[in-house]
Amino acid sequence: MPLKQFLSTAGLPVTKGEIIATLHSPLVKEVRNFVLGPGLISNIPQACQMWLGCTGLQHKATLIPGIIPDEYMAEAMAVIEPGVVPVYWTCAVFGREKDLFFGPGINTLMFFVSQIMPLDSMQLAAVPGKLTPEIIGDICERLKFPSDWRKIASHKSPAPLLDDLLKANPHVQWVEATSNGAAAVMCEEGVVDAGITTEAARTANDLLQIHNYGCPDMVFFGGLTEHGANVLRQAMAGL
């Protein structure tokens, strides 16, 4: 078996203008985007939607939510339908980005396109029934969780935002969520007492904000698979 080799960029569009023009080619029937679920309430699918809006590709695009990047990257790599360009989306602060890049990602162009987007108001939230103004004040000003709280959820990437709270409240443990959206669902379902999530996910799950961490710019990446590269080579040759 030969040694691995990174996917070649030969014959592919390079500049932003070339990429957009090639994706608009009639030879590209669909741009199938694999994003982080559940639903479209986490930052990654929102960044994908922003990119589609900026490129004018909404009319031929679909979004498919997945559980974790490893899995939906594999789903994207399995797409071989003619005219379909599968794109899998990740984030610059995803903790295992390098593992995907040097692992199965060697057969993809992981950073083929990118989108800078302010994070969707990252915040600590909980179901309204668990909160009063006094409890919110204690958490925000004194770093004090209620004595009956036991679990707080977040995706692994923003988990360091909880460090001070967890140190001050040893009776509360961190529970890993697969996404910011999943953390909101865990709160709504009563699996945890609170969680770090986005504004879209908080609203969708009827949670109440405890603290807003802010919304700095973040970089998101769309990865191109080998099949997608072949489709784009044919499309670019026909421009």
Indicate the topology.
Layout (H helix, E strand, L loop, with lengths): L15 H8 L6 E7 L6 H13 L5 E6 L2 H9 L6 E8 L5 H6 L5 E11 L3 E5 L6 H10 L8 E5 L7 H6 L4 E5 L2 H9 L5 E4 L1 H6 L3 E7 L2 E9 H12 L2
Parallel strand pairs: 1-2, 1-3, 6-7, 6-8
Antiparallel strand pairs: 3-10, 4-10, 5-8, 5-9
Explain this structure:
It is built from 9 helices and 10 strands. The chain is an alpha/beta fold and 239 residues long. Strands 2-1-3-10-4 form a 5-stranded mixed beta sheet, with helices on both faces. Strands 7-6-8-5-9 form a 5-stranded mixed beta sheet, with helices on both faces.
Keywords:
single chain; 239 residues; alpha/beta; D-Maltodextrin-Binding Protein, domain 2; 2 domains; five-stranded mixed sheet; 10 strands; 28% strand
Number of domains: 2
Structural class: alpha/beta
The SSE string, one letter per element, is: HEHEHEHEEHEHEHEHEEH
For the secondary structure, the number of strands is 10
CATH class of the largest domain: Alpha Beta
- Radius of gyration, in angstroms, nearest whole number: 20 Å
CATH architecture of the largest domain, by name, is 3-Layer(aba) Sandwich
Shape: elongated
CATH topology of the largest domain: D-Maltodextrin-Binding Protein, domain 2
Mean pLDDT, all residues: 96
Specify the biggest β-sheet. Answer: 5 strands, mixed
Instruction: Kindly report the spatial arrangement of strands forming the biggest sheet.
Output: 2-1-3-10-4
| Quaternary structure type | single chain
Q: What's the total helix number?
A: 9
Classify the beta-strand content into a percent band.
25-35%
As residue ranges, the low-confidence spans are none
Helical amount: 25-40%
Span of the ends, CA to CA: 37 Å
